[in-house]
Design goal:
This protein has about 375 residues and is an alpha/beta fold. The chain folds into two domains: about 160 residues, VC0802-like (2-Layer Sandwich), CATH 3.30.2130; about 160 residues, Vaccinia Virus protein VP39 (Rossmann fold, 3-Layer(aba) Sandwich), CATH 3.40.50.150. Helix content is about 25%, strand content about 25%. It has eight helices and 15 strands. Strands 2-3-1-4-8-7-5-6 form an eight-stranded mixed β-sheet. It starts with a strand and ends with a strand.
Length: about 375
């Protein structure tokens, strides 16, 4: 038995997230063509726990209960009421509906939430004689209702707080990179056993910490809980309490190094590494004058938003890269026009209102 599953990730990096799901589950995963920032795959009941605990690039994992075409909200209500809701919610559990709508419709997301919520209450009462409680702030079960053009999907959240919220990050940079983006960059770097990875502009250390956790097979937030624990129809994975995934248990000799020109950020990075439980080296060094010496270079250089003229910074940075020794360079930037090299691979990644890009260079 398996469920259809949908997972959210960083828009533009769906292919990276899909490859991670394949690695973790052995299940084919593809980008959701109708929803940027989402991937779809089949998931065995016990694998939801593994994905939530082990994934580094996903934000939220949803178990799909129903997907169908519709013409109006009455069709949506009927689709929900036909579900065997008693399989998914216990009588004493509260629920909430998180609705989103995409396309041209004579109704909005609040209307979808109201119709779906009432259909859940009515359908459950018809099946059990019991009226479910609604808790919009802290429900036991969060249902995600998505309307996209003429398709409706109802799914249950197995995650809770987004997976991009890392428990180890206790010190944060002024312009921090999202940890799931950092993890995606590390995967794109193709780090292999016995190799080294350097972030020459590490800031508060997000990329090196994520790289070290990945190399050592340590879950990024081993002590957090998941919405999965409140779902009786799926195994919670409570017995899967090991802190390593067995794939790279000892780190295989991988050396992870972070550098930054500002000593205060190096101290911040060291604090985050201690919080994550990884032994990562951090040095004070200027990336524009210290050529990188590592197998893989992964970085998030300043975008120049707070700089009057970022062009000299990028010129000097890439001159330093050119003098260095590395086999693959992966970086994310919102100043793609200042990058003097043609990338071997490019991913457009919107970061808020900023159009950024992940660029991959091979030697």
């Amino acid at each position: 038995m398996s469920f259809d599953a949908v997972a959210t990730t960083n828009p533009g990096l769906e292919r990276v997230a899909a490859a991670e799901v394949v690695d973790l589950l052995g299940s084919d995963a593809t980008a959701d063509v109708d929803h940027r920032g989402a991937i779809r795959f089949a998931c065995a009941p016990g694998d939801f726990a593994r994905l939530n605990r082990r994934s580094r690039t996903l934000h939220r994992v949803l178990c799909v209960l129903r997907e169908t075409r519709f013409e109006d909200l009455d069709d949506v209500a009927r689709a929900v009421r036909r579900l065997p809701l008693e399989r998914y919610l216990a009588e004493r559990q509260s629920f909430a509906v998180r609705a989103s709508r995409h396309g041209d419709h004579p109704f909005g997301s609040p209307d979808v939430a109201e119709v779906v919520g009432q259909a859940v209450i009515d359908g459950y009462r018809d099946a059990t004689g019991h009226r479910l409680a609604v808790d919009l702030d802290d429900p036991d079960v969060a249902l995600h209702a998505t309307v996209r053009h003429d398709r409706f999907r109802l799914a249950v959240d197995t995650t809770g707080t987004s997976l991009h919220d890392r428990g180890w990050r206790v010190c944060e940079h002024d312009a921090p990179i999202r940890p799931t983006v950092a993890a995606s960059l590390v995967r794109l770097a193709g780090l292999s056993p016995g190799e080294s990875l350097l972030d020459p502009t590490c800031g508060s250390g997000t990329i090196p910490v994520e790289a070290a956790l990945y190399a050592r097979g340590i879950p990024h937030s081993p002590d957090r809980g998941y919405a999965l624990s409140r779902l009786g129809f799926l195994p919670s994975g409570a017995t899967d309490g090991d802190r390593r995934d067995g794939r790279r248990g000892s780190g295989d000799g991988v050396a992870v190094i972070g550098r930054d020109a500002d000593p205060s950020w190096i101290e911040c990075a060291r604090e985050n590494a201690r919080s994550a439980g990884v032994d990562t080296r951090f040095d004070v060094a200027d990336a524009t004058t210290t050529p990188p010496e590592a197998d893989r270079v992964v970085c998030n250089p300043p975008y120049g938003v707070r700089l009057d003229d970022p062009e000299p910074l990028y010129r000097d940075l890439f001159r330093s890269f050119d003098r260095g020794s590395w086999s693959r360079l992966v970086l994310i930037t919102g100043r793609e026009g200042l990058v003097p090299w043609e990338p071997d691979e490019r991913f457009g990644v919107p970061l808020g209102r900023l159009d950024a890009a992940v660029l991959v260079f091979d030697r």
